[in-house]
Design a protein that fits this description.
The complex is a heterodimer.
Chain A: H1 4-17, H2 51-58, E1 63-69, H3 83-94, E2 101-107, H4 113-117, H5 120-127, E3 131-135, H6 138-142, H7 147-163, E4 167-171, H8 186-199, E5 203-204, H9 206-215, H10 229-249
Parallel strand pairs in A: 1-2, 1-3, 3-4, 4-5
Helix pairs in contact in A: 3-10, 7-8
Chain B: H1 42-59, H2 78-101, H3 103-138, H4 157-165, H5 176-196, H6 198-215, H7 231-251, H8 253-257, H9 259-280, H10 290-296, H11 306-322, H12 336-343, H13 345-365, H14 370-401
Helix pairs in contact in B: 1-2, 1-12, 1-13, 2-3, 2-5, 2-7, 3-5, 3-13, 5-6, 5-7, 6-7, 9-11, 12-14, 13-14
């Protein structure tokens, strides 16, 4: 959706809107962002906040993050390169050395949002995370679940996660150009945006981010390659983007970051 | 888009000048009045042709060209134009048949048309099946293991194909023809009812629309879910088109000519444009009241959201006002390609869906650059134009050699669509 004309406009707005102080965080020496991962600022920021994450870090408490995902959360046979693992590495790098960061992953394979929410209460009791990143929508889109039902299920799930005392970030579907003619994605993207807006929680727009990479030629997502290289690189960039997104939404001041 | 072709001329034939509600004898037809047959309403062809081009471009992956399609500037998109004009032309052609030859003959002709659309749909499905099977066997990127779950239906081709023939299994981008088939199946009933009382028919249509929203009625699909375009909701646009064709437009001409309508339409379109802009420039959403957002979203395409319907009405009202049917530009060679495509809508629609599949394929297999994208979009449109021209040429030749008695009955093409 990002044609170049609009894109440049957006970038311009983004540059104008970003306070100059921000320029400091953009060039960390330790974890320099690879060129392939570059993204316009608006894809990495959210108006909604993560107060519990902010409190935990201020108080020096460990940051327990739970990623609830599906098939696209991991790369078959290379778990360490999947985006949750990469996010953990980058967060550890960016937060003060004393801060303990632990990311655990719960895969709800081939489950719709509604099916996944059933296990949330138990899951939250077992893990008691500060932050839950809930990635969903793909299975619903493949099975063409009624978008209204999908919205209801996501709403219910978010409410359950919040009730259990965690901050929540929603993550939407992958941008998958090869299956674009076969899976109708827009209704699920729209409904997740609506739920995020209604609950005032950040939405990590994985779809727009990956499309941006593809459109800008940073990654060729049409590639039929069977090797894991592309998947590893994309997950690395997703992990970095997600870490940046969490830090931004938690409004951590530079003092609470390492650089 | 042509809510009222009689705003400026009292009949389709454009026999007289701008005298709305002229003193034409209406004794011949009971409740409805059909314009005399004559030259085609070129605005209908023009906008249907435009809708076909836009649908083609929207079915391709997004590119610079996508920004020229109207869905980026408001709530409604080419589908609304298409269904409305289809309702309009179908009522125009078969309504006349019903008055002249009776209900039975008209119904038979409508059913013949339905069969043609059905065959076209099955043809497209076959092509889709070939494409998806190819992707399933050649594409194994580990990044998309999960998305490949969509191929699961290939494990049960027997069930899938039967469900496709029943119109219950419809792949993405193949939703418009089934919707059109259902609407055309209902057309005999709609026309019969319109013949009796057009306004009551339109009222019933509104009631059905409201009931659909209130009780969440839908058509179920295979393997689960529902039809992406709910016929129970979209019929409103189709029936409204039919109602306009059968004299409604003329009766609305005073409303359409008023300045108040014009300004309301403009204000609504500007507001819709602003809302759309916030989707692409998130910075602007600071200026959107949260409460408005919560009331407005999601803008539902499946059930033809009221916001979409009214957006279409506003667009149509302005179009009718600023583009009179005698506008000389309609005859200009520059608009000829669009009009030609609009005149053979079923063929060109199917071709467009096929070209979109082919375009995806080339982008994936050869290269995905912006230049390639532009080349594919433009050549697709040129092919659509070329084929429309060939069909027109063939029809002309065939008509010349064929019996001359066929004229003026109104051919199915005019009611075509898809």
């Amino acid at each position: 959706m990002k044609a170049k004309v609009l894109l440049s406009l957006v970038l311009l707005c983004g540059n104008l809107a970003a306070p100059p102080a921000r320029a400091g965080d953009a060039a960390p020496a330790a974890s320099a962002v690879p060129a392939a991962c570059e993204l316009p600022a608006y894809l990495l920021t959210s108006e909604s906040q993560l107060p519990k994450v902010a409190d935990a870090i201020k108080a020096g408490k460990p940051l327990e993050i739970l990623v609830i995902g599906s098939g696209s959360t991991r790369i078959p046979a290379s778990e360490d390169s999947s985006y949750p693992a990469r996010m953990q590495a980058v967060l550890k790098d960016k937060l003060p050395p004393a801060e303990v960061v632990h990311v655990s992953v719960e895969i709800q394979s081939k489950k719709t949002a509604e099916e996944a929410t059933g296990s949330f209460v138990k899951l939250m009791e077992a893990k008691t995370p500060t932050l839950v990143i809930w990635q969903t929508g793909t299975v619903d889109a493949i099975r063409a679940i009624d978008p209204d039902d999908f919205r209801g299920a996501v709403t219910e799930g978010v409410a359950a996660l919040q009730k259990a005392g965690a901050d929540v970030v929603l993550m939407n579907l992958q941008y998958s150009p090869r299956t674009e003619t076969m899976i109708s994605v827009p209704p699920y993207l729209d409904n997740m945006r609506v739920v995020a807006q209604e609950h005032d929680i950040p939405l990590f727009d994985r779809f727009a981010i990956m499309r941006q990479w593809n459109d800008q030629g940073q990654f060729d997502l049409f590639s039929p390659s069977r090797g894991p290289e592309l998947a590893k690189q994309v997950h690395d960039c997703l992990g970095r983007a997600l870490a940046q997104f969490v830090i931004d939404a938690a409004h951590l001041e530079p003092a609470q970051q390492q650089n | 888009m042509t809510i009222a072709d009689q705003v400026t001329g009292s009949t389709i034939a454009g026999t007289t000048g701008a005298k709305p509600a002229g003193p034409r004898p209406r004794t011949a037809a009971p409740a409805i009045s059909l314009p005399a047959i004559g030259e085609r309403e070129l605005r209908l062809d023009l906008f249907r042709g435009l809708a076909l081009w836009l649908i083609f471009i929207d079915h391709l992956p997004t590119s610079l060209l996508t920004w020229f399609t109207i869905r980026n500037y408001g709530f409604s998109d080419a589908t609304e134009i298409f269904i409305f004009i289809s309702g309009y032309t179908a009522a125009f052609v078969y309504g006349r048949a019903m008055l002249e030859s009776g209900v039975v003959i008209a119904t038979a002709r409508i059913l013949r048309r339905v069969w043609q659309i059905y065959v076209a749909h099955v043809f497209l499905f076959t092509i889709f099946l070939a494409e998806i099977s190819y992707v399933a066997t050649s594409f194994e990127n580990p990044l998309y293991t999960e998305e490949m779950g969509i191929m699961d239906f290939l494990k049960q081709p027997d069930v899938t194909i039967v469900q496709a023939l029943l119109l219950r299994f419809r792949p993405v981008n193949m939703d418009v023809l089934p919707l059109y088939i259902v609407l055309m199946l209902a057309l005999p009933l709609i026309l019969w009812s319109m013949k009796w009382k057009p306004d009551v028919t339109l009222g019933l249509s509104v009631v059905l629309y409201a009931v659909t929203w209130e009780y969440d009625l839908y058509f179920s699909a295979y393997p689960n879910g529902f039809w992406a375009f709910n016929p129970l909701a979209w019929q409103l646009l189709f029936v409204f088109g039919a109602w306009c064709a059968l004299g409604g437009a003329r009766r609305m001409s005073r409303i359409l000519a008023s300045r108040v309508t014009m300004w309301i339409s403009i204000a609504y379109l500007v507001a819709a444009f602003y809302v759309t802009l916030t989707w692409y420039v998130p910075q602007l959403s600071h200026f959107m009241p949260k409460r408005l957002e919560q009331w407005m979203y999601p803008i539902d395409k499946t059930d033809l959201d009221v916001l979409r319907f009214t957006h279409f009405l506003a667009l149509a009202a302005l179009t009718v006002r600023f583009l009179p049917r005698e506008w000389p530009g309609l005859k200009s060679p520059w608009l000829r390609p669009l009009i030609l495509c609009g005149q053979h809508s079923l063929e060109i629609f199917c071709l467009g869906v096929f070209l979109a599949f082919a375009g995806h394929f080339i982008l994936a297999e050869v290269s995905g650059g912006a230049v390639m994208h532009a080349v594919i979009s433009l050549s697709g449109i040129l092919i659509m134009w070329g084929v429309a021209w060939v069909i027109s040429w063939y029809k002309r030749v065939a008509d010349k050699s064929g019996a001359k008695t066929k004229i003026a009955v109104g051919n199915a093409d005019m009611a075509g669509g898809g």
